Amino acid sequence: MLLRLQGISKRFGREWVIRNLSFALERGETVALVGPNGSGKTTLLRLMAGLLKPTRGRVEREGRALFLPNPPAFHRHLTAREHLLYDLAFHGREGDWQGALRRFGLPEEVPLAAFSSGMKKRLALVRLTLLAPDVWLLDEPETALDGEGRALLIGILREARRSAGVVLATHDRALASEVADRTLVLGGV
Amino acid sequence: MRAPRVGKAVQAPGRDGEGMGAVRRIWLLAWRDLRLEVRDRAGLLSVLAFFSVMLFIMALALGPEEEPLRRAAPGVLWVALAFGSTLLSTRAFALEVEDGTLDDLLLTPGGKEWIYFGKLLFQMFLLLPLSLLALLMAAGLFYLPLDRLLPLFLTLLLGVLGYTSVATFYAGLLARLRGREVLLPLLLFSLVVPVVLAAVRATLGLVEGLPLEEVQNWWQLLLVFDVVYLTASALLFPVVLEG
Amino acid sequence: MLKTAQPERPDTLTWVFLGLGLLLLPVGLYLALAAPPDVNQGYLARIMYLHVPGAWLGYLAFFVTFLYSLLYLFRQNPRYDRVALASAEIGLVFMGLALVTGMLWARPTWGVYWTWEPRLTTTAILFAVYVGYFLLRGAIEDPELRAKAAAAVGILGFINVPISYMSVKWWRSLHQTQSIDLTTGKIHMDPAMLQALLFNLLVFTLLYLGFVRFRALLAVLEARREEA
Amino acid sequence: MRGKYLLGLVVILAALAYLIFGGLGQNLVYFLTPSEYLQDQARYQNRPVRLGGLVKEGTVRYDKDRLELRFTLTDGVAEVPVVHKGTPPGMFKEGQGVVVEGRFQGDHFQGTNLLVKHSETYQAPKEGWTPEEVRKLIEEAK
Question: What is the rounded CA–CA span in Å between residue A88 and residue A97?
Fold first, then answer.
């Protein structure tokens, strides 16, 4: 068991965003999270990552979880090389960052401020593969990616499920049916 | 600027984030932030401008006689340093909040204390040269004698550390809050009044040429506050930052 | 949505504390006024019966805030936050009372209302810390972040309490040292005065307990309105 | 986890203990005594200081017309003549502890602010005192 949510609810101010939800994720599993805007997908991912605490209920996690926000967040003033090296160091890991950057067709020495949103998305995927978390939490990973990027994403997700668990929030039904073993639908509140 | 080598990341032995691994991460985080701040320039320049404007205006207001200027100098210097370091500590987390990268730091394995120490170290890197600069400016504008530079610098170190230890903690706590620039000094000043007070008295003693044994007592007081605030802040930081 | 039925009105214990405190307040006043005058200060010394309990209860209240702030941070139960809040608020009132009576006492005895003497300075700092506590609470909307931030002030600010209390011993200063010295157990006071002081201390403690329980209940109702 | 907090607590308590027992304090004084002044006169000349001690018996001279108070301050070892402009505060009397703010000028101490220090001991008038005596005592103390 990688991740287990037991009867969690989350409230912001007076609004209940998530009510009494239970969920479990196994290693080797990919779950698609679908639902309209405002149905609490991002909140749920952040709860799973441990970035938010549920108002009620419990979250149990095994191993390391990483959360990929949409749009991805990077320091503007660093280059891709610097950013990846710091990330690797902070997480206490090693990895072939040069090979990964090449595979995704990204330049090493350009400040990230000059990256397009599609390039940033690719870099975020590079970062995730290098850091290799046990739980992948992705918020709309398909947005801003071109056809080639999308193919790379699907490839990465297939690799990831071999050793980890994946939860991805998406509006892309085709992507969900292509990579996910099951789908979790969040309704309106 | 050359960073310490990050290429050879070593897998931390045993549990992540312990021992040497943590020290290295702290060092790297401080260094990275320094790099970001230097490349961004805006924050650094505003702090610098703030220092100089404040010292100039105070010197104009209190001058031109030498004696009152000299007596006022330690107070002015420390108030300028306190405000300046409040600006900087907001910057330390604004770097993460503006780019949305605070979550990435929080998701690193192991305890969260290293983030606190990294941000603290980053501010000390910037504040120590800045405070030395402020001291030199005060020497020029306020006739502050610099013949005891080493004890003066020790006072700066102890005072700035005490102030920054609490400032970093609160800046982290309030990082995502609207109006943090207003709230932070409000909260900080009541807590760090003892530190600023002791630092002003130590500086005053040094300027007035009191024997070192007399100043030493203020140093002791500063040291105690530094240790207590640093320890308490480091322990509380992960607790308030989670969730 | 409620886990347990929370009380709508103050429970018996709260009423007992409040009632007993208010009932005994005039008795304490009588004892204070009946206590003999001091050899040196005459009737002036009687302000002590307000000043000393006020300061003590202020310290005690801040200690309770410190304790419950720690509890809150480690247990995340909003109940602890409410007690910390209530205690800080009452503590601020008592500390304010100690400051005001102290100033009134200082003018005829020392000759000034205020001087930057260690005890007075540290007490003023202490007062400022807890004023900051409420400024902070007022500025944060999210209840959890508010509670956490306040708890941090409640913990970090507490270091000034022992320093304030010990300041008269550590520094040779104008303020007299403790008449009832908790660190050595020595008492420098006429028995008749001591009785009156201790009685007033008891009354203030009862009032404090009653007030805190009452204020914490109000905080429950406030929180419920915020949630509803 | 618990060890971390325990360690922190020990560090904080050790720091506070150092504050209490570390010999700190005696120098962070609010006032000087006359003997301290006499040991190092040059240092305190014309510097704002606070001077504390007892008002020596039989030395108080108060000039009502010029509102000038003169007395000798003693700590049992050394004595310093004090000149203070203004009326004495209510509890000012001979043998009383006082703190004077001001500066040394030549041979005397020029006070600008006079504070009376009272002790932590509270004592009722002894039995056997007549009501007149008590009233007189209180009127004097006012």
Answer: 9
Q: Which residues of A touch C141 (CB under 8 A)?
A: 13
CB proximity D11 to B under 8 Å: yes
| Backbone φ and ψ of A30, nearest 5° | -125, 125
pLDDT band at residue C4 under the 50/70/90 scheme: very low
> What part of D 40-79 touches B (C-beta under 8 Å)?
43, 47
What is the number of structural domains in chain B?
Answer: 1
Looking at the complex, report in whole angstroms how far the Cα of residue C78 sits from the nearest Cα belonging to chain A. 11
Are D and A neighbours with ≥3 CB pairs closer than 8 A? no
| Domain contains B2 | no
Check if D27 contacts B (Cβ < 8 Å).
Answer: yes
Note the pLDDT tens digit of each residue in A98-121.
Answer: 998 998 889 988 888 899 999 999
List the single residue in D8, D18, D24 with the smallest CB-CB distance to B217: D24
Q: E-assigned strands of D10-107?
A: 49-55, 61-63, 68-74, 79-85, 97-105
Say how far apart CA A1 and CA B184 lie, in whole Å: 42
Residue B9 lies in a domain: no
| Sheet order of strands, A182-185 included | A65-68, A135-139, A165-169, A30-34, A182-185
Q: Do B228 and D16 touch (CB under 8 A)?
A: yes
Residues 90-129 of B with CB under 8 A from A: 95, 99-101, 103-110
Q: Which residue has the tokens 């995502």?
A: B176
Structural domains in chain D, CATH included, are: 29-120+130-141 (2.40.50.140)
* pLDDT-derived band at C59, boundaries 50, 70, 90: very high
Could you give the domains of chain A? Answer: 3-76+117-185 (3.40.50.300)
Q: Do A53 and C76 touch (CB under 8 A)?
A: yes
B52-79 per-position pLDDT tens digit: 898 889 888 887 788 788 888 888 889 8
Give the N- to C-terminal CA distance of chain A in Å, as an integer: 28
User: ipTM of this complex > 0.85?
Assistant: no
By Cβ distance, the residue of A64, A65, A90 closest to B25 is A90
B3 belongs to a structural domain = no
Give CA separation, C159 vs C62, C65, C129, C172, in Å: 10, 12, 11, 21
Residues of C in contact with B240 (CB under 8 A): 73, 148-149, 151-152
Q: Which chains touch B (3 or more CB pairs under 8 A)?
A: A, C, D
Residue type, D127: E
Q: Give pLDDT, residue C222.
A: 83
